[in-house]
Specification:
Blueprint (H helix, E strand, L loop, with lengths): L1 E6 L3 E6 L14 E3 L3 E4 L2 H12 L4 H15 L9 E8 L4 E7 L21 H5 L10 H12 L4 H14 L1 E2 L2 H9 L1 H5 L2 H7 L12 E2 L2 H13 L2 H4 L1 H14 L5 H6 L3 E3 L2 E5 L2 E5 L6 H12 L4 H4 L4 H21 L10 H4 L2 H9 L25 E7 L4 E8 L57 E5 L2 E6 L7 H13 L5 H6 L3 E2 L7 E3 L5 H9 L4 E3 L8 E4 L5 E4 L8 E4 L1
Parallel strand pairs: 17-18
Antiparallel strand pairs: 1-2, 3-20, 4-12, 4-21, 5-6, 5-13, 6-9, 7-8, 10-11, 11-14, 12-13, 14-15, 15-19, 16-17, 19-20
Bound molecules: 6-diazenyl-5-OXO-L-norleucine (DON).
Length: about 575
C-alpha cells in the first residue's frame, strides 16, 4: 500500500506506507535529534539527564539521574519511597533485560490484613495508612541498573537531585495544583505538612522556591554509603520509626533483605516487529503482547484510527486480556503464571475466534480463558536513548499521586501505598477497578501485581519505539495504542502520543474514551452493544521513535503540562 505525500507547494511523491517518523504538514511535530533523546514528565529531570548524555554518559546513566531528579522535582510520583521497572536494551549486546525493583510486602503482611470485622476491605487501611506501604525498591533498583549497565557512579547520578533538593527549584503550576488537590489527605500527617506546606500552613505557589533539606540529606547518605545509605543506618531507622508511629509493618529486616531482580522481559512479535515489555510481577507486558497478538489478525490500518470498527476490535481484545489478568497474573516468585500460553499466537487466535466483528460480547459472558501451556491517577515514565545503541524505558511509582500521602519524618520522602495493588479480597476491585484472585493474594515478601508496561519495540535488532506510561489499569491500553498508532496508523511519535485514547478493562463493562472521539463513532459503538463513557484523560506516555536513518524523535505527552522531550 502507498500514499501520496505533498512536499512543499507542488512536488508529490509516493512513499511506501510504513511507519512515518514525520510527514510534511504534520500537525504534531516530535522533537528531533541525532545523538541522544530524553523524554520525561518533568523538564528539570529531562535537562539533567540530557547533560549526562552530552557528557558522554549512556542511557542508563541518564535514566538513573532522571529518576533521582524526578524524586525531587515531582514528588507526587517520582520517588525513592516506591518501586518500578526498567527495561534496558543494548543493540551492541543484542539483549533486552528488565530490572524489577517493585516493592515487596513486608514479612509480617498477611492475606486478610485489610479486612475489617465484617470481612470487608478497609480501603483507608490499604491506601492511606502506614500499613499501605510496601518495602521500597527504587534506590536498590537504580543502583543495580548503574552497576550492571551504567558508567557513572551512584554519587554522580545523585548529584543533580541533591542540588535540586538542597537549593530548591522554582515551583511550576502543576506542582501547586497537585498539592492543592491532595491538601486534605496530605494535611492529615504532620510529617507531610512539614514538607508540602509552608511553615505558616499556606501553599507553595507557582514561582516559589521549593527546598527539601531532609530529602537532600537522605540522598546524600545514599551518595556516600550506596544502597546501605537507604536500607540500613539512619534512613532505615527513620523509616522504621515512622512505621512504629502509625502501626506500619516494615522492619529493619525487611529493608535489609530487599533485593531487586534482573528478569527476562516478555517478548512477542507484531507485524514483523519485536516487542519487549515488562514481565511479572507486572501484568503489563503480558497483556500488551496478548492484545497485539489478537489484533494482528485484523487490518487495523484499513479500518482506521479510532473508527468505530477499530475501537470495537480493540475493546473486545482488551476485555479478554483483562479477564485473564484477573485470574492468572501475580508474582512469578510465588505463583505459576501461564506466560507462554497467554502470549502465544495460538491462544490469541482462539480468543479472536470468540470476537463478533459487529457485536460487543457483554463482559458477564467473558470469563478468563484457558491459555496453554500452563507453566511456571500517578506514576511516571521516561524514555531515553543514547548514541551507543542503548535504550531505557522506565516506569516507577508510589501508586497514587503522593502514594500513601505519608512522608517519612526526617527523611523527607513519601511512602508508597502499593499494597493496594494486591487483591485484598478475591473479586473486590482495587483502586483502579481491577479484580484479582488467588494469584495476587497478599503473602509475606511477595510483590504486588502491577500494570506498568515499560516497552521497547525493535526491528531487525535495532531499537525502534521506546515507550511507557502511568495510568493504573489504563497503562496497558495506553501503551498498546501508541504502538498501534505508529505501526498500523503510521502516525509520527508525537501524533501517536497525542491521539485520543480508548480503554476497556473487562469490568466495568464500558469503553472509556478521552475527549476527541466523534459522536457518530460513539453512536456506532453503542449500536454494537457497547457502553461508552467519556472520562478524564488517560496516561502520560513519554515516547521515542528511532527513524530508519537513525534519527531520534521524541514525543512528550501534552497530558502533563511539565512533560518535556529534549535531544541533542
Ligand atoms: O503498578 C501499578 O500498576 C500501579 N500502582 C500504577 C499506578 C499508576 O499508574 C497511577 N497513575 N496514574
Amino acid at each position: 500500500m502507498s500514499r501520496v505525500v505533498t512536499l512543499g507547494c507542488c512536488v508529490a511523491v509516493t512513499t511506501s506506507l510504513s511507519a512515518q517518523p514525520i510527514m510534511e504538514g504534520d500537525r504534531s511535530v516530535p522533537v528531533e535529534a541525532r545523538n541522544g533523546m530524553v523524554v520525561t514528565s518533568h523538564y528539570l529531570a529531562t535537562e539533567e539527564a540530557l547533560k549526562v548524555l552530552k557528557a558522554g554518559g549512556n542511557a542508563v546513566d541518564a535514566a538513573v539521574t532522571a529518576a533521582f531528579a524526578l524524586a525531587v522535582t515531582q514528588p507526587r510520583s517520582g520517588n525513592i519511597g516506591g518501586g518500578g521497572f526498567m527495561l534496558v536494551s543494548s543493540e551492541t549486546k543484542g539483549e533486552v533485560k528488565a530490572i524489577d525493583y517493585r516493592e515487596k510486602a513486608p514479612a509480617a503482611a498477611t492475606r486478610d490484613m485489610y479486612l475489617n470485622d465484617q470481612g470487608e476491605v478497609d480501603q483507608k487501611l490499604s491506601r492511606f495508612s502506614h500499613k499501605a506501604a510496601g518495602v521500597p525498591g527504587t534506590v536498590a533498583g537504580l543502583a543495580l541498573a548503574l552497576e550492571k549497565y551504567g558508567t557513572i557512579s551512584l554519587a554522580e547520578a545523585l548529584a543533580p537531585a541533591i542540588k535540586l533538593a538542597e537549593e530548591g527549584f522554582v515551583v511550576p503550576p502543576r506542582f501547586s495544583e497537585g498539592i492543592r488537590d491532595r491538601a486534605v489527605l496530605l494535611g492529615q500527617f504532620e510529617s507531610s505538612r512539614k514538607v508540602f506546606f509552608k511553615p505558616d500552613g499556606t501553599f507553595y505557589e507557582p514561582g516559589d522556591l521549593f527546598v527539601q533539606k531532609d530529602l537532600a540529606a537522605t540522598l546524600r547518605r545514599v551518595a556516600e554509603q550506596g544502597v546501605k545509605g537507604f536500607y540500613e543506618g539512619k534512613t532505615a531507622d527513620l523509616i522504621v520509626a515512622e512505621m512504629q508511629k502509625g502501626g506500619g509493618l516494615i522492619t529493619h529486616e525487611d529493608l535489609k533483605n530487599y533485593q531487586p531482580e534482573i528478569r527476562e522481559p516478555v517478548h512477542g512479535t507484531y507485524r514483523g516487529y519485536d516487542v519487549y515489555s515488562m514481565s511479572p510481577p507486572s501484568s503489563g507486558g503480558t497483556h500488551v503482547v496478548q492484545i497485539l497478538n489478537i489484533l494482528e489478525g485484523y487490518p487495523l490500518g484499513e479500518s482506521g484510527l479510532n473508527s468505530a470498527k477499530t475501537i470495537h476490535l480493540m475493546a473486545e481484545a482488551m476485555k479478554r486480556a483483562y479477564a485473564d489478568r484477573s485470574k492468572y497474573l501475580g508474582d512469578t516468585d510465588f505463583v505459576d503464571v501461564p506466560l507462554k500460553g497467554l502470549t502465544s499466537k495460538a491462544y490469541a487466535e482462539e480468543l479472536r475466534a470468540s470476537i463478533d466483528p459487529a457485536r460487543a460480547t457483554p463482559s458477564v459472558e467473558i470469563r478468563p480463558g484457558n491459555p496453554s501451556p500452563y507453566e511456571s491517577n500517578e506514576t511516571t515514565h521516561f524514555s531515553i536513548v543514547d548514541k551507543y545503541g542503548n535504550a531505557v524505558s522506565n516506569t516507577y511509582t508510589i501508586n497514587f499521586s503522593y502514594g500513601s500521602h505519608i512522608v517519612v519524618d526526617g527523611a523527607g520522602f513519601l511512602l508508597n501505598n502499593e499494597m493496594d495493588d494486591f487483591s485484598a479480597k478475591p473479586g473486590v476491585p482495587n483502586a483502579y477497578g481491577l479484580i484479582g484472585g488467588e494469584a495476587n493474594k497478599i503473602e509475606p515478601n511477595k510483590r504486588m501485581l502491577s500494570s506498568m508496561s515499560p516497552t521497547i519495540v525493535m526491528k531487525d535488532g535495532k531499537n525502534f519505539i521506546v515507550t511507557g506510561s502511568p495510568g493504573g489499569s489504563r497503562i496497558i491500553t495506553t501503551t498498546l495504542q501508541v504502538l498501534l498508532n505508529v505501526i498500523d496508523h503510521h502516525l509520527n511519535i508525537q501524533a501517536a502520543v497525542n491521539a485520543p485514547r480508548v480503554h476497556h478493562q473487562w469490568l466495568p463493562d464500558e469503553i472509556r474514551i478521552e475527549q476527541g472521539i466523534s459522536p457518530d463513532t460513539i453512536a456506532l459503538l453503542e449500536g454494537m452493544g457497547h457502553t461508552v463513557e467519556q472520562k478524564a484523560a488517560m496516561g502520560a506516555i513519554q515516547s521515542i521513535m528511532i527513524g530508519e536513518e537513525g534519527v531520534f524523535y521524541g514525543g512528550a505527552d501534552p497530558r502533563r503540562s511539565t512533560s518535556s522531550a529534549q535531544g541533542y
